[in-house]
């Protein structure tokens, strides 16, 4: 088992991209990859690098408390406009979603540049076309979005009550989030 764990460790370490369990299995062959990953997670807990899983993909990352030591230049935080932030939230919570649906939720048109900024950041991708008149493009969040915001999956997105408790919603925004909830209910009813 120790050799198999070492093989899994080497595979994840050498990969330029996060890997799924199936990807790892394809490299190392027969064996319990999940158990090996659990063993490695325990070994690397509290170390300078950690083995983490984000959205079903495994990779090594610098321990969050030590990341500042490795930065040679100060990273400029990516500043998103309010429109881009709202658009990203709508896509994350309602994906796949069309441009018209985003505009209906926001109550205003969005510029092409807003979606371009989110796609260039690697947080949003096209997710096909909706079957229906005009066959509009659909947008969805990406694995990079989950990784950047430290989410294991979309299920880890905070709910409205969490956002209110954190003081991140002002009374004017409550109407927007009520509309989001109503749109979600209508979407679920259409699927049934």
TrEMBL record:
Domain of life: Bacteria
UniProt keyword annotation of Cell cycle present: yes
Keyword ATP-binding tagged: no
SUPFAM superfamilies the UniProt entry points to: Winged helix' DNA-binding domain
Keywords: Cell cycle, Cell division, Chromosome partition, Cytoplasm
InterPro entries referenced in this protein's UniProt entry, alphabetically: ScpB_csome_segregation, WH-like_DNA-bd_sf, WH_DNA-bd_sf
Annotated PANTHER family: SEGREGATION AND CONDENSATION PROTEIN B
Name by which UniProt lists this protein: SMC-Scp complex subunit ScpB
Native species: Sphingomonas daechungensis
Lineage: Bacteria, Pseudomonadati, Pseudomonadota, Alphaproteobacteria, Sphingomonadales
């Amino acid at each position: 088992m120790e050799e198999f764990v070492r093989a899994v460790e080497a595979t994840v370490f050498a990969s330029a991209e996060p890997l799924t369990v199936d990807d790892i299995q394809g490299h190392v062959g027969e064996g319990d990859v999940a158990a090996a990953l659990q063993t490695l997670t325990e070994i690397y807990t509290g170390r300078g690098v950690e083995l983490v899983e984000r959205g079903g993909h495994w990779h090594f990352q610098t321990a969050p408390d030590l990341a500042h030591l490795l930065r040679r230049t100060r990273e400029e935080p990516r500043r998103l406009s309010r429109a881009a932030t709202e658009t990203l939230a709508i896509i994350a919570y309602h994906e796949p979603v069309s441009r018209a649906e985003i505009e209906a939720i926001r109550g205003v048109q969005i510029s092409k540049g807003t979606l371009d900024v989110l796609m260039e950041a690697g947080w949003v991708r096209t997710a096909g076309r909706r079957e229906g008149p005009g066959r509009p493009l659909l947008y969805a969040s990406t694995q990079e979005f989950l990784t950047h915001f430290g989410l294991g999956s979309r299920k880890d997105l905070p709910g409205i009550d969490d956002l209110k408790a954190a003081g991140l919603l002002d009374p004017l925004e409550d109407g927007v989030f009520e509309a989001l909830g109503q749109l979600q209910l209508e979407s679920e009813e259409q699927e049934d």
